[in-house]
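To close the section, here is one more complete example, presented without commentary so you can practise reading it yourself. The ligand is heme C.
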Amino acid sequence: VKHGVAPGNKALYPAMPYPSYQLMPDEDLAAMYAFFMSDVEAINQPNLESELPPVANWRWPLAYWQVLFDRKRDFVPETDDALLTRGQYLIEGPGHCGSCHTDRGIGFQEVTLSNTDSAEYLSGAVIDGWRAKSIRGEHRGLGTWTVTELNDFFKTGRTDTTAAFGAMAEVVEHSTQYMTDYDINAMSSYLKTLSPAPNKEATLPEKEDLTTQKLLDGDYDSRGAILYAEYCQVCHRADGKGVARIFPALDANSAVYSKSADSVLQITLSGGRMPETPHDRMAFTMPEFTNLSDADVAEVVNYVRNSWTNQAPKIDVNDVVKMRAFLAKKPKTSTDIAPDLSIDTQTKGAE
Ligand code: HEC
Ligand code: HEC
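Output:
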């Protein structure tokens, strides 16, 4: 678990985040071992075949990878504050947040494993076609979030204005929702100490909302506006504010106006389901819009990312073509498959 070595001296691929788990104390690993041996029932099931292409599927070079990229390191607290140290430890160690949120280098190694080492830490990367966006202090990171909102997000998978989706829905559903309130608050408090990522805007200029009134008046000034009114407005509303805890806001939502459009593009093409937790009545789903043409998907994605107070770089048709090709090959995972609920059942209770 700590060094990526299986019985028989077999080296594990770094998809298993052992460079993070390395920070865990031996008592915690002993506790997990005891749990697996006593409480987890053994089953007899062959592993799935590796889908890695030849050469990439050779295991022996992994031993060299480990020498280069999995150097032994110790946890070094940034401050002597107990809460922040706990948060830093959970994020760098067992939470392995960097394995999705930190960019990887040519060797598939995370470019940095801690904030002390580099401010590239947690500044955003792509995982399974989702943008695990920056969670540092700039405007497009977590600059606009409060600690209370982050606590809510990790515990329930939503806030009054946003919902975890894609790979992050799995993180909340299978992991953070079970953490204690103290640990969740420790992580949120630590995240809010991270400075803006290098070369990213700490704040964005204010922008006036000219979208809401036009939509309410039926004054559609672009193809994107027509598509939004027809396909999205029923849930996300004319003011882009959605419905608290049911339909996330699209306006002023950092997941929507993040620099990379990948996440917005993927959820539009493949839909999504909020994580399931006992804290909210239902996990609502977003339908997939596979039937829209590539040009229309680009229009509606650009529209939601640049309407109301949002400002974000635009995409073009080629980005949609690429994402569709990627999705055609992507294996379906539990949270990627949105149950087929009609809009009627979706909006029940939302009005
Ligand atoms: C399996 C990959 C993965 C892991 C591991 C992961 N995340 Fe995420 N995270 C994502 C993706 C993808 C998104 C974008 C989707 C969204 O906003 O829900 C995201 C979004 C977020 C957001 C919302 C940001 C915003 O502006 O909307 C926060 C906060 C966050 N992650 C924190 C964390 C923390 C803290 C950890 C470690 C405990 C973590 N994540 C681990 C993939 C991951
Ligand atoms: C039937 C209601 C419904 C419709 C129609 C709908 N959405 Fe959504 N949308 C949702 C729900 C529910 C979520 C949360 C899904 C999740 O967390 O996985 C969501 C999430 C999103 C998100 C991610 C924001 C976040 O914080 O979770 C984006 C971006 C988005 N929708 C864009 C669109 C666009 C663009 C359209 C129209 C083409 C659209 N939606 C149509 C219900 C809807």
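Once you have examined the tokens, check your reading against these statements. Confidence is low (pLDDT under 50) at residues 334-351. The pocket of heme C (ligand 1) is lined by residues 91, 95-97, 99-101, 127, 130, 132-133, 135, 142, 150, 153, 162, 164-168, 171, 176, 187, 254-255, 263 (CB under 6 Å).
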